[in-house]
Design brief:
Two copies of one chain form a homodimer.
Chain A: H1 9-27, H2 34-40, H3 45-51, H4 55-80, H5 87-104, H6 106-114, H7 125-142, H8 149-171, H9 183-199
Helix pairs in contact in A: 1-2, 4-5, 4-6, 4-7, 5-6, 5-7, 5-8, 5-9, 7-8, 8-9
Chain B binds a DNA duplex (30 and 30 nucleotides) through residues 1-4, 6, 33-35, 43-47, 49-50, 54-55.
Chain lengths: 201, 201
DNA sequence: AAAAATATTGAACACTGTTCAATTCAGTGT
DNA sequence: ACACTGAATTGAACAGTGTTCAATATTTTT
């Protein structure tokens, strides 16, 4: 049944990504299988392997899309709600948006970190650019507060890794040890305290 | 070949845990399989399932041991090097020890977070106690600095989630975007800035 | 209409977690 | 010494997995 739907390679790739995304969203990373994706778009495994090198590269592409959506979400969050507010407000807005996104798309967001490269080699360039892209929001908010550009980069990374840590531990239920403080409250506390420490340097 | 080595259930369980740990350390979470563990201790799959409910519960037990070792490691780190130093020094020592442990046992440490409970239910009690145990070190260091006990708990969780975030992003190579700042330097910066912000409240 | 080129299939391989009837054996009773 | 019993252990079976690639189906070119 060749060329059945006259879909190009790119079209098949996108259909596969759509289907795979839906599967992960519904059944999680573990529920994702080549045959399931292929069946969902009306093809068989073989075709899928014609369009993706392997399972890992499919996962990486889905993750790329997740990063794109996250970037979009952060953008609208800071542009709509509190335009041109101070750094603290902006950063808190960003953190809420980040955490909100992670909670809304938990399985896809989890997959962002379940994927691991073979020991020794790094993430592909296009993926690292997307990561930087997401990061740029934090840097922009922090720049007015920290003079030096290199220092801005460092502070942004440290602070955002911190917010990410809160987010990931909450979502994976490693932080429910005591009084039910929400992850957003925790992130707010981190940001406020960190910024105060930064100002009083 | 029944009762071949006259091992009790508990002994078999421990042998299995030792073997599984070695496999994960060498080949990662993905390399762990029931048949491999069984073969390594001279039994077959069936016996393994007599001693562990399923793969997940085996993983959870390995994780328990990893937490125990982590706890030990943190203890020796603060008791030997800098006994009775100020909070900042202690926390930095703890962070270095935490990160060092994660880097020394990367696959086992990763598995700590790759394991996920079925959606809806929580970690078993014995596991949560181990988590609290590890946390207690951070709380102890932070207590003199923060008056209120509830506030101490909050600050400890926020700060440690931050350190964990740095650690996890570095190990999973999501933070190599720019000038090669080490994860330990980043954690130090986080701790110093956070503590300054905490003091100048 | 025949030939060439390309798209698609699906069986095959070596693996996975999990179950459970069948087998093998240690200890006891005779 | 021998059968019996009950527990320990096995390993085949099931339904799935990622991945490959000769074979087939279809379109395009000649």
């Amino acid at each position: 049944m060749a060329r059945r739907g006259k879909y190009s390679r790119d079209e098949i790739r996108n259909m596969a990504l759509d289907a795979a995304e839906a599967i992960v969203a519904a059944e999680g990373y573990a529920g994702l299988s080549a045959r399931k994706v292929a069946a969902a778009i009306g093809y068989t495994v073989g075709t899928l392997y014609l369009v993706f090198e392997n399972r890992n590269s499919l996962v990486l592409r889905i993750n790329g899309r997740t990063l794109d959506r996250l970037h979009e979400h952060l953008m609208t969050a800071i542009s709509s709600a509190s335009a041109k507010k101070d750094a603290e407000t902006t950063l808190i807005t960003l953190a809420r948006a980040y955490i909100g996104h992670a909670e809304r798309e938990t399985p896809l967001w989890n997959m962002l970190f379940e994927y691991t490269t073979a020991q020794g080699d790094v993430m592909p360039d296009w993926y690292r650019r997307k990561l930087e892209h997401v990061f740029s929001h934090v840097e922009a908010a922090l720049r007015p507060l920290v003079g030096d550009e290199a220092e801005t980069g460092r502070a942004a990374r440290v602070l955002w890794a911190g917010v990410h840590g809160i987010c990931t531990l909450k979502i994976r239920q490693r932080l429910d040890l005591s009084g039910g403080q929400s992850d957003e409250e925790m992130a707010t506390m981190l940001i406020k305290t960190f910024l105060r420490g930064l100002r009083d340097r």
